[in-house]
Specification:
The protein is an alpha+beta fold and 468 residues long. 22% of the residues lie in helices and 35% in strands. It folds into four domains: 103 residues, Trypsin-like serine proteases (Thrombin, subunit H, Beta Barrel), CATH 2.40.10.10; 101 residues, Thrombin, subunit H (Beta Barrel); 100 residues, PDZ domain (Pdz3 Domain, Roll); 99 residues, Pdz3 Domain, CATH 2.30.42. The strands form five sheets. Strands 21, 22, 23, 24, 25, 26 and 27 form a seven-stranded antiparallel sheet that branches. The N and C termini lie far apart (82 Å). About 6% of the residues have low confidence.
Length: 468
């Protein structure tokens, strides 16, 4: 009798559990209602820009790579203009037609066209853009009223939560994909301020700038990157809404960003550093140098200090400090706790503004020279010692870093920041080397070359390319 009771009880539990699982599954068996509600707030973005190239004035002759004559005579070539087209996604955050997208979607665009659900098209203008977080704010040039969406709290998003992405992949428009949050706080080496949400919702070229929604229909992320240019492989990245909102508010209010600035150069605290300074464990950010006359120097911070706490927030590593300082109000006086001479010391620092600092402006004016490689339809720059150190490459590495890839490039499946180190079994020592090899290949009948690259994970790949 007892055995029979237990058997019935066990079967009942199994039935209830499977029933519960079935109900949980049914709860998200359709995203139709949510998608129908949100799609009018998502826009497709189309941009155009004019690219000017010059033909070689001496088509039968190539100057040696890096030759001064290469730069001297390039301006004598016949200028040739062509239109480049790009596409992306965005979403409306205000009924007046304010749109959020990625900066790289509209960068250097001459014309911006947005299309809303139903196919109606409008011109849009840039209100402000931030290349560091890769965010831009646009305004539809119309007096009509539009349907906005609102931001959610990305800090509450958990790994495993269901999400949907809506956007304009491959120019198809109005596409809804679903998945989960796969990871949080991802850093993939694209920019200084990275704290990506990773998702397996299908994201492809054209989804950039589109929203990542939670199941309440709130925007918790801005889709900004895919893993590899070959398309969706179940790994996409989104800027968290909490990081984006502060930048968006500043762009709307000022047309530019106003980030807090400490005026320090910091590096990670290693195990050896912590031991030598008698710190309990590797944590915080080690001050390597200070900007003369900057906020930290004025506030009494010294080289060799380890910043453990900033404005009441514990600092585990340099990345956390960079984020927190940038999001703190310019002009605010904060308490900074540092480790010095085996004890904790409190200093009060009045924050400056990053964008007006000498260090920022010097860095801004020293942008490296880029070159457009016609046959590959990519823009590249020379590899520097700083790149080699940052990517932990062999010291003797040479090559050309890809800074831009046109949509119709024969290698559009590669990524920005990939490094071309070899072409046709010849080491690429200068950008000129790459151009000469490509130009030579264009004069052959099959117009193909073999290139060797470092991808963004510093893995070597060899690729055969059919030139356009």
């Amino acid at each position: 009798m007892v055995f029979r009771f237990l058997k019935i009880f066990f079967v009942t539990i199994i039935f209830v559990n499977f029933s519960t699982l079935g109900n949980a599954k049914d709860a998200h068996s359709s995203f139709a209602d949510l998608a129908e509600k949100l799609m009018p707030s998502v826009v497709d973005i189309f941009t155009t820009q004019t690219i000017v190239t010059r033909s070689n004035p001496f088509p039968g002759f190539q100057f040696p790579p890096g030759s001064t004559f290469e730069d001297m005579f390039k301006d004598f070539g016949t200028p040739q203009e062509r239109k480049a087209y790009a596409l992306g996604s965005g979403f409306i955050i205000d009924s007046s037609g304010i749109i959020v997208t990625n900066n790289h979607v509209i960068k250097e665009a001459e014309d911006i066209l947005v299309k809303i659900e139903g196919g109606k098209e409008y011109e849009a203008k840039v209100i402000g853009a931030d290349p560091f977080l890769d965010i831009a704010v646009l305004k539809i040039q119309s007096s009509e009223k539009f349907k906005p969406v609102k931001f959610g709290d990305s800090d509450k998003a958990r790994i495993g939560d269901s999400v949907i992405a809506i956007g304009n992949p491959l120019g198809l428009g109005g596409t809804v994909t679903a998945g989960i949050i796969s990871a949080r706080n991802r850093n993939i080496g694209m920019s200084r301020y990275e704290d990506f949400i990773q998702t397996d919702a299908s994201i492809n070229q054209g989804n950039s700038g589109g929203p990542l929604f939670n199941m309440d229909g709130d925007v918790i992320g801005i889709n900004t990157a895919i893993y590899g240019r070959q398309g969706n492989i179940g790994i996409g990245f989104s800027i968290p809404s909490n990081s984006a909102k502060k930048v968006i508010d500043q762009l709307i209010k000022y047309g530019e960003t106003k980030r807090g600035w400490l005026g320090v150069m910091i590096i990670e605290v290693t195990k050896e550093t912590a031991e030598s300074k008698k710190l309990d464990k590797p944590r915080g950010a080690l001050v390597q140098d200070l900007t003369a006359g900057g906020p930290s120097e004025k506030g009494g911070i010294k080289a060799g200090d380890i910043i453990l706490e900033f404005d009441g927030k514990l600092i585990n590593n340099t990345r956390e400090l960079i984020f927190i300082v940038a999001q703190t109000e310019v002009g605010k006086t904060v308490e900074v706790q540092v480790w010095r001479n085996q004890r904790e010391v409190i200093k009060k620092i009045k924050l400056g503004r990053l964008e007006t600092s000498d260090a920022f402006n010097v860095k801004k004016t020293k942008e490296p020279k880029t070159t457009f490689v016609e046959g590959l339809k990519i823009t590249v720059r020379a590899l520097t010692d700083e790149d080699i150190k940052a990517r932990n490459l062999p010291e003797n590495t040479t090559g050309a870093i890809i800074t831009k890839i046109e949509n119709d490039s024969p290698i559009n499946y590669l990524n920005v920041n990939n490094i071309i180190i070899e072409a046709e079994k010849k080491k690429i020592k200068t950008v000129g080397d790459l151009k000469n090899i490509v130009n030579s290949a264009l004069r052959t009948t099959n117009k193909t070359i073999q290139i060797v690259i470092y991808n963004n994970q510093s893995q070597i790949r060899e690729i055969g390319v059919k030139l356009d």
